[in-house]
Design goal:
Blueprint: H1 2-16, E1 32-37, H2 45-51, E2 56-59, H3 65-68, H4 78-89, E3 93-101, H5 107-110, H6 115-132, E4 139-144, H7 162-166, H8 170-181, E5 186-191, H9 200-213, E6 220-223, E7 226-228, H10 235-247, E8 251-260, H11 270-287, E9 291-296, H12 323-335, H13 432-463
Parallel strand pairs: 1-2, 1-9, 2-3, 3-4, 4-5, 5-6, 6-8, 7-8, 8-9
Helix pairs in contact: 1-13, 6-8, 10-11, 11-12
């Protein structure tokens, strides 16, 4: 009886101990900390509660072409609308993903071989979808994973997909159509192996620069950031990539980060190593004013397309936050948790105390002469599938934290700002998001209060 009582008591104590929401520590910035959601799990209260800790959401599959137009010409927005409604009900911004992709597509789309037919299909789909969501979704991944994995680092090759074979200029058609349909939506290109670890990083940069140089309408790039514990980018890797996109005038979202444990997952340091990957990416994003969103690809490990055994996400299978979650929270608290002083500029930089990164030397994305050599066994494939330190940071004028690992640099990255935002004063003292934060926090404390007294009464009943 005593053992059972102790187990129950520990369970109730676990429930009583709450945790802070990531969304509550973005300060007065417009920075988005997001998560990929799947409507298959919307009836799971624990899933919903964990997902609501973020302030941005993206549908894993529900808004792709295969989810909206599985039958040619028959548009079914129900699942994508359901994801959007979830985000709206939890005061989360919703990100559109994606309009044109070569993978997991219905047969009618894959069977198109005529250029005119392919162009008409792309134009019709983009026009119909963007018209339906005009004014509701602020950013879309227009094209997903169009660059060949084996492209040389000094140029780029298109993936030899059925879309490219039918219509070699499909990327131009897609972005031009999207801009024509909705002049206000932000248009992104999204791809993997682009976080500075692999040669494809530079191929995609060349591709984006080519679009910009040819005046193809593009606003941003999505760096998917699927990585592993054993082969993760350093802080300098990703910081340099983002900085170069800032110089190009391109907005950056880290769109699908997860950190796979593919070997020795029972190592006691595994969450520490995963935390380094997560926080290096976040610190680099916060270090560059053009990086405005950071999204994790899934909620709990058991929801991951990689499989729960790889332990890739921020919540365990009981939807409890892991070390990775708390480390991300710590970075947000130290950089964005308090209102940044927007009138203050500084030339001081606090570098992460990570000796493993200090040996990296800067290389321009235009002329990459050195980079980590990828091991073919670890090189990531397409991850978009249905299936560090804690230094106190100075603040900049946008998102707060400034990090640098370049030992030769003591200045803040002064890249041009893309979509820099400032808070808008409202007549009320508490903004809407702040009010929701207070309500959420109050409910959490109330729940903890009730559970605590249930515990006390139960223990008293058993003992006496």
């Amino acid at each position: 009886m005593e053992i059972r009582t102790l187990i129950l008591a520990l369970t109730l104590v676990k429930l009583c101990i709450g945790y802070d929401a990531l969304r509550d520590y973005v300060g007065d910035s417009d920075f988005k900390i997001g998560v990929a959601i799947n409507s298959e799990h919307f009836d799971d209260e624990e899933y919903v509660e964990a997902a609501s800790n973020f302030n941005m959401a993206v549908a894993e599959n529900g808004c792709k072409l295969s989810g909206i137009q599985y039958i040619k010409g028959k548009y079914d927005f129900r699942d994508c609308d359901y994801h959007l409604e979830f985000a709206q009900n939890h005061t989360m911004e919703f990100r559109g993903h994606n309009l044109v992709w070569h993978s997991y597509q219905p047969e009618w789309f894959q069977n198109i071989i005529d250029a005119n037919a392919m162009e008409n299909a792309i134009v019709d789909h983009i026009t119909t979808v963007l018209t339906h969501y005009k004014g509701k979704i602020k950013a879309w991944d227009v094209v997903n994973e169009a660059i060949d994995d084996n492209s040389p680092s000094n140029s780029f090759n298109y993936r030899d997909s059925f879309i490219y074979q039918a219509l070699p200029n499909f990327v131009d058609v897609a972005f031009t159509t999207a801009r024509k349909v909705d002049p206000d939506v932000k248009l992104f290109y999204n791809d993997y192996s682009t976080e500075g670890k692999w040669p494809k990083t530079y191929s995609v940069y060349k591709f984006i620069k080519d679009l910009v140089d040819r005046n193809i309408p593009i606003d941003g790039v999505g760096i998917q950031y699927h990585t592993t514990v054993q082969n993760q980018p350093t802080f300098y890797n990703i910081n340099k990539v983002i900085s170069d996109y800032c110089d190009l005038g391109i907005e950056v979202h880290i769109t699908e980060i997860d950190v796979e444990c593919s070997d020795k997952c029972d190592n006691e340091n595994i969450e520490k190593l995963q935390s380094e990957a997560y926080t290096n990416a976040l610190k680099a994003c916060l270090n560059n004013s053009c990086c405005t969103a950071y999204l994790v690809w899934g909620v709990a490990d058991k929801n991951s397309w990689l499989g729960e055994d790889t332990l890739p996400l921020l919540f365990d299978n009981d939807f409890q936050p892991k070390t990775q979650y708390n480390k991300i929270l710590k970075v947000l608290k130290e950089t964005l948790g308090e209102t940044p002083d927007k009138s203050t500029n500084t030339n001081e930089t606090t570098a992460p105390n990570d000796s493993s990164n200090s040996t990296d030397s800067p290389n321009s994305m235009d002329s990459p002469n050195s980079m980590d050599s990828p091991n073919s066994m670890d090189s990531p494939n397409s991850m978009d599938s249905p299936k560090s330190t804690d230094s106190t940071l100075p603040t900049d004028s946008n998102y707060g934290g400034v990090y640098s690992e370049n030992p030769n640099s003591s200045t803040i990255n002064t890249a041009p700002t893309q979509s820099t935002t400032t808070s808008i004063e409202k007549e009320t003292d508490i903004p809407e998001d702040g009010a929701m934060s207070i309500l959420r926090s109050s409910f959490g404390h109330f729940k903890s209060f009730i559970l605590f007294y249930v515990l006390i009464i139960y223990v008293y009943y058993i003992v006496f």
